[in-house]
């Protein structure tokens, strides 16, 4: 299957977001119902904005393009959290940096774990010899990349609408209407992806990526996450020569045409592996959105 098709298939799903949007409408200017809304990642922020519409501005904590697995909060981030009234997070350990910052910031923000309503996938097994950082990344036994299945994001939208409606009851019906409209778009996206995947023979639905990002996408659409450069769901591990050798043999044996690399991850190791194998590298916006003028500015 041509790599260009796989890339075309992935991009509409594997999204990106703009940095914190400017205040809009009466709420954004401190009008009635204005809240100090913060989202941890640009993906979360983009979904919150779809539901909040013009009623609420949304501030972004982790800048677009950053590798969240290695994010180090600044004093400004502490201040942002101290002032927040509601904080939307991905959860499942993705924001491993967050709790110490919240402890430092204080404040009384409503903390919303969007993935608490989702049935998580277990994280793949990885060799401790390969994971130099061990458990330091804070990730647990579950894969946190839930947004790679748009039906999970539909659940996010429902939780966001319910939260904003409770905090700002004057606009409750608008939040629910916005969520319903967005869920309809996500359902259409899910149908489109399924139809596109049908064009790929089942035996060719193989994915190799820098770290375990595509588990929910694979589970939803019948792909196999054949292998990763580093074991586990964090990009912070360092692969061993043995692991890379085994992965190279797998790729060659299965005639895999492309290696996918998250846009927020250093591609050096992947580039070397792809060069040795004579295959193409395809960047994906799987963990972070692009700038507004880039190829993936929204989910």
What's the β-strand tally? 8
Spans of at least 5 consecutive residues whose pLDDT stays below 50 are 1-30, 125-138
Which class do the helix and strand fractions yield? alpha/beta
Terminus-to-terminus distance: 25 Å
Strand percentage, roughly? 5-15%
Instruction: Work out the helicity level.
Output: 25-40%
Shape: globular
Instruction: Give a short account of the largest sheet.
Output: 4 strands, parallel
**Average pLDDT figure:** 83
Number of helices: 10
The ordered H/E elements are HHEHEHEHEHHEHEHEHE
Gyration radius (Cα, Å) is 19 Å
The strand line-up of the biggest sheet is: 2-1-3-4
Describe the secondary structure blueprint for this structure.
Elements: H1 3-10, H2 25-28, E1 37-39, H3 42-52, E2 58-60, H4 75-83, E3 86-89, H5 98-105, E4 110-113, H6 150-167, H7 172-197, E5 206-209, H8 215-221, E6 224-228, H9 241-254, E7 258-262, H10 268-277, E8 280-284
Parallel strand pairs: 1-2, 1-3, 3-4, 5-6, 7-8
Helix pairs in contact: 3-6, 4-5, 6-7
Structural notes for this entry:
- This protein is an alpha/beta fold.
- It has 10 helices and 8 strands.
- It has helices spanning 3-10, 25-28, 42-52, 75-83, 98-105, 150-167, 172-197, 215-221, 241-254, 268-277, and strands at 37-39, 58-60, 86-89, 110-113, 206-209, 224-228, 258-262, 280-284.
- The strands form 3 sheets. Strands 2-1-3-4 form a 4-stranded parallel beta sheet, with helices on one face.
- Helix 10 links the parallel strand 7 (258-262) and strand 8.
- Helix 3 packs across helix 6 and helix 6 (150-167) packs antiparallel against helix 7 (172-197).
């Amino acid at each position: 299957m041509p790599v260009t098709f796989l890339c075309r298939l992935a991009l509409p799903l594997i999204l990106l977001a703009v940095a914190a949007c400017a205040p809009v409408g009466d709420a954004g200017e401190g009008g009635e119902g204005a809240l100090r809304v913060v989202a941890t990642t640009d993906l979360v922020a983009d979904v919150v904005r779809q539901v909040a519409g013009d009623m609420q501005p949304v501030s972004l904590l982790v800048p677009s393009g950053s590798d969240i697995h290695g994010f180090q909060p600044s004093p400004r981030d502490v201040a942002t959290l101290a002032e927040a009234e509601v904080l939307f997070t991905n959860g499942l350990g993705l924001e491993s940096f967050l709790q110490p910052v919240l402890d430092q910031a204080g404040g009384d923000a409503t903390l919303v774990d969007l993935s608490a309503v989702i049935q998580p996938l277990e994280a793949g097994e990885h060799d401790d010899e390969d994971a130099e950082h061990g458990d330091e990344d804070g990730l647990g036994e579950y894969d946190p990349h839930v947004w790679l299945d748009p039906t999970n994001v539909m659940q996010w939208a429902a939780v966001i609408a319910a939260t904003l409606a409770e905090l700002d009851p004057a606009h409750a019906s608008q939040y629910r209407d916005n969520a319903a409209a967005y869920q309809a778009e996500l359902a259409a996206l899910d149908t489109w992806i399924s139809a596109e995947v049908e064009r790929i023979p089942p035996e060719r639905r193989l994915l190799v990526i820098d770290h375990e990002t595509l588990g929910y996408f694979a589970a939803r659409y019948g792909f196999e996450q054949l292998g990763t450069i580093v074991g586990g769901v964090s990009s912070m591990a360092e692969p061993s020569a043995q692991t890379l050798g085994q992965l190279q043999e797998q790729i060659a044996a299965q005639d895999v045409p492309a290696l996918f690399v998250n846009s927020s991850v250093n591609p050096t190791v992947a580039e070397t592996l792809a060069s040795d194998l004579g295959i193409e590298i395809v960047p994906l916006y799987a963990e972070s959105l692009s700038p507004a003028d880039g190829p993936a500015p929204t989910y």
